[in-house]
Amino acid sequence: MSSEQNSRTDSTDASGPRPGRLTSAAALCALEGLALLVGGVWMLVLGLTGDGGDRQQAVTGGITVLVLALLPLLAARGLLRRRGWSRGPAVITQIMALPVAYSLLQADSVAVPAGIALAAVAVASLVLLVHPATTRALGIRGPGRARESEQR
Predict the structure, then answer these.
(1) What is the pLDDT of residues 51-97, one digit of tens each?
(2) With contact defined as beta carbons under 8 Å apart, do 133 and 22 qualify?
(3) Rounded Cα gap, residues 16 and 27, in angstroms
(4) Which tens digits make up the pLDDT trace of 91-141?
(5) Confidence (pLDDT) at 142
(6) Based on the number of CB atoms within 10 Å of its own CB, is 105 exposed (0-12), middle (13-18) or buried (19 or more)?
(7) Which residues, at least 6 apart from 75, have a Cβ–Cβ distance to it below 8 Å?
(8) Degrees (nearest 5) of the Cα angle 106, 107, 109?
(9) What is the DSSP string of 68-122?
(10) How many other CB atoms are found less than 10 A from the CB of residue 39?
(11) Which of 10-14, 37-41, 123-127 comes out lowest in average pLDDT?
């Protein structure tokens, strides 16, 4: 891939204002990333201060959740900067959130409201991410449109 093609892929037409849908999608991704950060820190602190039996598992889980928090946070940053690559990680995050939300909804505890909130955020984010205005703002072309622009 030439540097000209690469720059077209990474930078989009920033001549117009950022669509509200794109800003909303970035905010929801950032919210999920921050929630994962808080959850990871909480698990890590509980693991470090807890008894020896579950300590290793809790610390490992906390570190894993902290690393997973990077995906939606980087995607949110890319969405705000109108980078086309950022939609993929954002969509993957939402798809991964749906089974987690379903599991939370199956619990008979305080986790049910968290499952409802997570499901609502994931579905709303997916709708915002696949909207044509978001796709245009990120400079993502469909398969047929890419060939048309190359022929010109």
Answers:
(1) 666 788 888 999 999 999 999 999 999 999 999 999 999 999 999 99
(2) yes
(3) 19
(4) 999 999 999 999 999 988 888 999 999 999 999 999 999 999 899 999 988
(5) 72
(6) middle
(7) 26, 29, 33, 86, 87, 89, 90, 93
(8) 145
(9) HTHHHHHHHHHHHTT-GGGHHHHHHHHHHHHHHHHHHHHSSSTHHHHHHHHHHHH
(10) 16
(11) 10-14
The amino acid occupying position 3 is S
Report how far residue 76's alpha carbon sits from residue 128's, in angstroms, rounded to the nearest whole number.
13
Q: Of residues 144 and 60, which shows the higher confidence score?
A: 60
Residue 2 has pLDDT above 50, yes or no: no
- Give, in degrees to the nearest 5, the angle at Cα 23 between 102 and 26: 45
| DSSP sequence for 120-145 | HHHHHHHHHHHSHHHHHHTT---HHH
Q: Is 111 exposed, middle or buried (0-12, 13-18, 19+ CB in 10 A)?
A: middle
Structure tokens at 24: 């909303």
Q: What is the pTM of this model?
A: 0.79
